[in-house]
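Re: that backbone. Tokens:
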């Protein structure tokens, strides 16, 4: 449970860290820097745990496409959403990935939806609509349709990543390092042919390193340890519900974002839908971001 609380505590700082870092650099620059830091951290952990042989010998065929999904596509879209939206909105919309996974599991894994699944989806996505329209629920003119679309696309990519990896036999740490080994060179090419990487001062560097070290790195390791150590994974998965309120508080205190009433109402609806789904199935949690 302490591992789980540690991971959730770090994830609670993610929205604030993203907004601070994106105040210094572009989403692509942040993605490249954070991925490089995370790749180095995972490489050290792979070596220390004696997994270098496994990491070098097998699993690269899966990593070839998995690395393009995570970190490349997922985080570029997610950082794009945070760059365009208030952190509270991007964070809340991104929390619907678990429901997206439940619906995508029907065509991909052949699972069936229950009435509670449908009800949970209706409740949660009414919260998405509330946040996207900033409370003007009868107005179809979104404040930032591209930003909202990116936030929802990130949930689609994250859910697809975990569903397609359902038969991935690589150990989690090896899989993460291999995926980033594929992702970092791709991001480097995109950066070189695109805007390039500029020096944004020590504060910008520190913010980017924090994202890679804690959000993509240490939090992932703590979560995996939590899932493997507890006797019942539902105990740990329930800790995820602590993260949004703490995230909102940090965004207010550090970034200075006033909490919009529409965000509070929408977040309650989203968490209510997730809670209903969790109560019904008590699934083993995937990694949150």
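Recovered sequence:
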């Amino acid at each position: 449970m302490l591992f789980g609380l540690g991971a959730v505590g770090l994830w609670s700082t993610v929205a604030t860290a993203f907004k601070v870092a994106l105040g210094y650099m572009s989403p692509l620059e942040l993605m490249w820097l954070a991925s490089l830091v995370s790749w180095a951290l995972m490489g050290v952990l792979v070596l220390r745990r004696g997994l270098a042989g496994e990491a070098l010998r097998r699993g690269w065929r899966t990593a070839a496409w998995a690395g393009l999904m995570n970190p490349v596509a997922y985080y570029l879209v997610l950082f794009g959403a945070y760059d365009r939206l208030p952190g509270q909105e991007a964070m809340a919309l991104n929390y619907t990935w678990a429901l997206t996974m439940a619906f995508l599991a029907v065509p991909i894994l052949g699972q069936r939806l229950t009435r509670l699944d449908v009800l949970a989806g209706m409740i949660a996505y009414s919260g998405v609509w509330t946040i996207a329209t900033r409370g003007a629920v009868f107005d179809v003119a979104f404040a930032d349709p591209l930003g909202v679309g990116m936030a929802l696309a990130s949930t689609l990519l994250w859910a697809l990543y975990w569903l397609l990896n359902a038969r991935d036999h690589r150990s989690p740490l090896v899989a993460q390092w291999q995926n980033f080994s594929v992702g970092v060179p791709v991001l480097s090419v995109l950066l070189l042919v695109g805007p390039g990487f500029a020096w944004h001062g020590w504060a910008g560097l520190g913010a980017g390193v924090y994202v890679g070290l804690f959000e993509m790195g240490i939090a992932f390791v703590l979560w995996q340890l939590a899932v493997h150590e507890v006797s019942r994974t539902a105990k740990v998965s329930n800790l995820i519900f602590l993260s949004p309120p703490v995230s909102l508080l940090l965004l207010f205190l550090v970034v200075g974002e006033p909490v919009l009433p529409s965000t509070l109402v929408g977040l309650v609806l989203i968490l209510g839908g997730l809670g209903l789904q969790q109560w019904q199935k008590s699934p083993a949690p995937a990694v949150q971001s």
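Residues 283-287 have pLDDT under 50 and may be disordered. Residues 201-229 form the longest helix (29 residues).
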